[in-house]
Write a structure and sequence with these properties.
Radius of gyration of chain B: 24 Å
Number of helices of chain A: 8
Strand content of chain B: under 5%
Low-confidence stretches of chain A: none
CATH architecture of the domain at 1-86 and 202-261 in chain A: 3-Layer(aba) Sandwich
Number of strands of chain A: 10
Number of helices of chain B: 10
CATH topology of the domain at 78-272 in chain B: MetI-like fold
Oligomer: heterodimer
Strand content of chain A: 25-35%
Chain lengths: 261, 280
Amino acid sequence: MENLKAVSIKKLSATFDGNGKHLQVLNNVNFSIKNGSFTSIIGPSGCGKSTLFRLISGLPTKDSCKIDGKIRIYGKKPLTACSDKDIGLILQTPTLLEWRNVAQNMKLPLEIMGYSSDNSNKKVKNLLKLLELEEFEKYRPSELSGGMQQKVSIGRALAYNPELLLMDEPFCALDEINRRRMNNEIINIWEKTKKTILFITHSIEEAVYLSQKVIILTNKPSTIHKIINIDLPYPRSEEQDSSKYFKYIKEVRGCLDEASH
Amino acid sequence: MLISKRPTGLFFLVNMKKQIKNILITITIIVIMLILWELLITHFHIPKRIAPKPSDLIDFIQKEFFTSHSTKYQTILTKSLYSLKDALIGFTLALIIGSGLGILLSQNKTIYSLLFPFLFLTQLIPIPALAPVLAAILGYGYSTKILLIVLFTIFPIIITMRNTILNIPENYKQLLHTYTQKPIILFKYLILPSLVPPLLSIMKIICSASIVATIITELPLSVKGGIGKDIYNSFNNQIIARVWVSVILISLISLIFFKLLSYLEKYINTKYKYGKFKSC
């Protein structure tokens, strides 16, 4: 896995045809992501970030969606990568099951994938420790704040040890303070687990703060406008290298403005 | 970051004082109504065949339940319990078949388009009209009675089950899809728990309906032993007190049935929180 590209996308186009409408969402998208890296995708609202996310994660698309091009996750098609447990999904909402407590929610994929009970319990225990959720093991999702719920969903995605974590605007519903806290948490998790993270966001600050590489998409039909490497050391803070940090924010904002027109 | 504390204690002990107060108020209102009823009927000299006095009903109860009868004699309680047994059989069958059909109709639009008009048709025809049609085909016996109860109660179950499945948030289905592509797993971990609250809710609605359906179906059919037939015969023989007590008894049984299901619903929903989807 180490030498393989985590994500490789070549000449990807997606078009929705139906009801007399023709809508091209993605047009000739090309990029690749190195194993173990942290990459963000940012683009104007409604540009097709979520469609791209669905295609990479192997989620079913509408029947009217025609796809051209090649998507490979560690050299495999997305559905195969999904079946091989290479992909962990973290969605916009935590999508936790209220009838299961924190530990049971984290255990859900393991139960479904047929892991033994002892093995599952051990894995969940380690995750609870990693995410500092040990004391909330028996809590139900509604008893936790939005940030903690999202942390549980990250734990659930990590439970079966996927190589690639796909995150679709996971902190969009959080307030600024909790969002920043969760950003630090996710960097911490990434550093500890060495997973590849592909993070979709509409926040420029978040993209720059988290990633090693920011991919900027244009308006529909979306294509790649620019890829910016963020050369800032981890752990990051706004105070540290602030001039460089704000320079990147300015650069991404400028590109995003260009991409929106 | 924690936003709420876990609830403690048993839910039925909460507000117990308030519940006792409510029960006492209800009993007082019933007693006042009975006294008024007795006084009005005596004052206006309303004959027994139109409306009996509460004292007439008490007389009947005393004779029915507290005097000895021949061994072959069946009290209205025995007959009511016989009808309740049939209602429970119909209720259970309607739940099983209705849930199954609801699940089936949620999975395939073609099956839904084919079956729905027939299911809807059963709701348009009242039981007394449908009973002779079915009886002519299936006979005037027990199976027709159960089938009529099922037909009378099944429709809301099918619709509720189907709508519940269709309303499960898409992101939950997508997430489970990344863990497995087996539909049975999706059913076990997502659909089945989602169906628990609406099922409990619909059980409360159809419990009384199944008793009503049982009584109505007993009138045109030749099935013996039920309270419906007894009410009909008592009315024809002008034993009005028996009709009234039977109706009150059936209402009490329905009420107890409903209350038990309400407690079950509250207990399961509070304890397990099935079918609740939480977002940020």
